[in-house]
Design goal:
Largest sheet: 5 strands, mixed
Helix content: 40-55%
CATH class of the largest domain: Mainly Beta
Mean pLDDT: 88
CATH architecture of the largest domain: Sandwich
Number of helices: 7
Structural class: alpha+beta
Oligomer: single chain
Low-confidence stretches: none
Number of domains: 3
CATH topology of the largest domain: Immunoglobulin-like
Shape: elongated
Order of helices and strands: HHHEEEEEEEEEEHHHH
Distance between the termini: 73 Å
Length: 335
């Protein structure tokens, strides 16, 4: 391939790469150059740390790449033989000291700033004026999130909290490693079996904040999403009262736990059609499947995890009530 053609192909490839990178950044949140807009003090601390690091690395990138481009043009071949040896430049002690000390100082500034911000990111505020933090138990399952409130109420995949209230999140896992992550309200925190991790947030704006499991946890990992609904204190208390209705809780369990595989009507999806399966309305059989799963051995495509491991009796009864009234269609008629 002629030299001129190779050069043009290289320029075209670089231009295409730059265009793809810019397009990807444009479609990402905040233009792709910063985390999601924070709506909690700890998320703001993460955002501030990110921006400081991005500032330093951006300046270094411009300096290094600018120098590289200048050297390419300043010391280009200009017709000299390729075998010709360039001028030899020997040690410059002052310059070497400068480029050794500069990175050390930059890293020291970044580390000092991060350690300054870390307590505000990690430590849960006392919130004495509000009677202490609102403590929520978060349980990760394949493939949904379960939230337990201080009064014992439970919800699936949707966490409701009052605005401007410190919320402490105690994170658990019932099966494999997961990761709790709602970008606008804080960083990622792992959910590990047998370990309790903690984080917190204090949402300063009402609305719905979307989260996603940040750790690959199995074939339906992509379906393991979460919503944090921030609302008034009155709306929060009303919601807690509503999820005590077995049909409402059972509906959440069906949609968040079962229907992700079996479809909203139970007629199949990734999993089989179960709408006419009598196990749905047979207490012992349903309980066995919820606690132990199905097809524990290969093939993986037919494996069902123990989705109800750790459920209370009230949760099981709520799902039963919903299945009997809204999902189970009875055995198909013959003929």
């Amino acid at each position: 391939m002629p030299v001129s053609v190779r050069r043009r192909a290289l320029v075209l490839l670089l231009a295409l790469g730059a265009a793809l990178a810019l397009a990807g950044a444009a479609y990402a949140g905040n233009g792709g150059f910063a985390p999601a807009t924070p709506h909690s003090p700890n998320a703001s601390g993460i955002n501030d740390s990110y921006k400081l690091i991005a500032l330093f690395t951006g300046i270094i990138f411009v300096i290094v790449e600018g120098a590289l481009i200048w050297f390419i043009f300043r010391y280009r071949n200009r017709g000299r033989p390729r075998t010709a040896e360039g001028p030899q430049i020997y040690a410059h002690t002052r310059l070497e000291l400068m480029w050794t000390a500069a990175p050390v100082l930059i890293l020291a500034v970044i580390a000092a700033f991060v350690f300054y911000k870390l307590p505000g990111i990690k430590n849960v505020p006392a919130a004495k004026a509000q009677g202490g933090p609102l403590v929520i138990r978060v349980e990760a399952h394949q493939f949904y999130w379960q939230f337990t409130y201080p009064d014992g109420a439970t919800s699936i995949d949707e966490l409701h909290v009052p605005a401007n209230r410190v919320v402490r999140v105690d994170i658990h896992s019932e099966d494999v490693d997961h990761s709790w992550w709602v970008p606008e309200l804080g960083g990622k925190f792992d959910a590990i079996p047998g370990v309790t991790n903690h984080t917190w947030f204090k949402a300063n704006r009402m609305g719905t904040y979307r989260g996603q499991c940040g750790e690959f946890c199995g074939v339906f990992h992509a379906e393991m999403t979460a919503r944090v609904v921030v609302e008034s204190d009155a709306a929060y208390r009303s919601y807690l009262a509503s999820v005590r209705d077995p049909l409402i809780l059972g509906g959440q369990e069906w949609r968040g736990v079962c229907a992700k595989c079996h479809g909203l009507s139970g007629r199949g999806g990734y999993g089989p059609n179960i709408a006419v399966n009598a196990v749905l309305v047979e207490h012992a059989g349903l309980l066995r499947i919820l606690e132990h799963g199905q097809n524990q051995l290969r093939p993986v495509s037919s494996y069902m995890p123990p989705v109800g491991r750790g459920w209370t009796d009230a949760q099981v009864k709520a799902l039963e009530a919903y299945l009997k009234t809204r999902v189970y269609k009875g055995a198909p008629s013959g003929g």
